[in-house]
Amino acid sequence: MLAPMKCPHCNVGIYESLQRGTPYALPKGVQWTPYFQVCPECKQDIVYLECFSTSTQTIEYIVERFIAYPSNPTLRQLPPEVPDPYRQDFVEAVAVLPLSPKASAALSRRNLQALIHDLAGVKGPNLDSEIQTIIDSGKVPSYVTEGLHAVRQLGNFAAHPIKSLTTGDVVPVEAGEAEWNLNVLESMFDFYFVQPAITAKRKAEMNKKLQDAGKPLLK
């Protein structure tokens, strides 16, 4: 399955299709490997680097895959309706994504669980069961439930239950997992903060017109 991501140039949602380049081995048993693809939207190059030790029987990562180009990825912008602490956690998760997808995913999982507790009013033994409760409730739109389901699927919760039990722990992530968690947070921010604010604004504007016309106000 192709992992979803956002282009670091144009910030448009795309699918990861990284191609592995020729590794470069250094004398002391260290190997750097490039991965690259072209954004299908803006046609810009995207390059990642990965470094691991070749001196052991098993792969020992020294620097896990990080974005090398562009050097200053486009940061995701949140609507002003999104309040703290959700905003601050999201901003931090975006900032550390190029350096540590594991840390970014941990911040996003913690943020996601806080949203589920505070706004959906759902609290369970772990994040996995809380997501299922929201999906079963039918109280959120399909684009949110589908995104939440993919959080579990991409995160491979079955193989890594610690992600569900202790959401803020920094643990290994799957390809595209950290980016997808941010995508899902954005969809939840839209549902819980942005759309209600738009509706309230439109209602206030309509009530002003009705009031001026001497007609009953919307409740």
Account of the 3D structure:
There is one protein chain. α3 packs antiparallel against α4. The chain is built from six helices and seven strands. The chain is 43% helix and 18% strand. A hairpin with a 6-residue loop joins β5 and β6 (45-53). The protein has 219 residues and is α+β, with helices and mostly antiparallel strands. The protein folds into two domains: 1-74, no CATH class; 75-211, no CATH class. The radius of gyration is 21 Å and the shape is elongated. Strands 3, 4, 5, 6 and 7 form a five-stranded antiparallel sheet that branches. Strands 1-2 form a two-stranded antiparallel ribbon. It has helices at 86-96, 101-118, 127-137, 142-155, 162-165, 177-212; strands at 4-6, 13-15, 19-20, 24-26, 30-38, 45-53, 60-69.
Question: How many beta-strand segments?
Answer: 7
| Portion of residues within helices | 40-55%
The biggest beta sheet is recorded as: 5 strands, antiparallel
Rg from Cα? 21 Å
N-end to C-end Cα span? 47 Å
| Tally of individual helices | 6
* Average pLDDT figure: 88
SS content category: alpha+beta
One letter per element, helices H and strands E, the order comes to EEEEEEEHHHHHH
- Can you tell me the number of structural domains? 2
Proportion of residues in β-strands: 15-25%
What is the subunit arrangement here? single chain
